[in-house]
Please model this.
Amino acid sequence: MATPSNARQPIVTPQIGAYIDSLSESPTRLEAALRDHALAHDFPLIGQTSGRWLELLARSIQAQRVFEFGSGFGFSALYFARAVGETGEVIGSEFTPEVHAHFARLYGDDPIAQRIDIRVGDAVEIFNATQGTFDVVLIDIDKEGYVDALQAAIPRVRQGGLILADNVLWGGRTASEAEEGDTATAALRAFNSTLYADSRLQTSILPTGDGLSVSLVL
Model:
């Protein structure tokens, strides 16, 4: 998800963000359709720049199998699907059936949809119900669920694979102690600390979008 509407400050200034986006090739028809749908429905997205980071990172390790804890209607899944190619697969999860219903409509008959399988339900439960290991996992669900998703994912991401998480800077909120009642910020601060403390991972945070953590499984 993108920067929260109540964020104190953007991580990257709008001018710099627009400049980075301008250097990229024009959005594809499907990319633009997904973006426009999100804008029309005020649905938070990981964003084009972060999405292209997902694609680059997945390509860099020749990923073939990806799992998303939180897929919405398939915006981030598009970038992963481009990375894994015709022989790869992206398994996603979306808790809300109404949001999931937009996936098939927006993708239509685009052949890239054949690489994507978004399932409705609790993300951790869906992940636990799948078989095998993954090359890349993305965590982008309710922030209070991040640590649980991480603990489920680590044993099932191959050595040299990646665990990615969006919103880890949370509009700058994670740089300070969470205010009373701000459970999302508290959860993200705990998640970030857990990432950096886990000896099975090597982690850094990209200051793109709303903060994208990148953890290499050792």
In short: The domain at 14-217 is CATH 3.40.50.150 (Rossmann fold). The two ends are 27 Å apart (CA to CA).
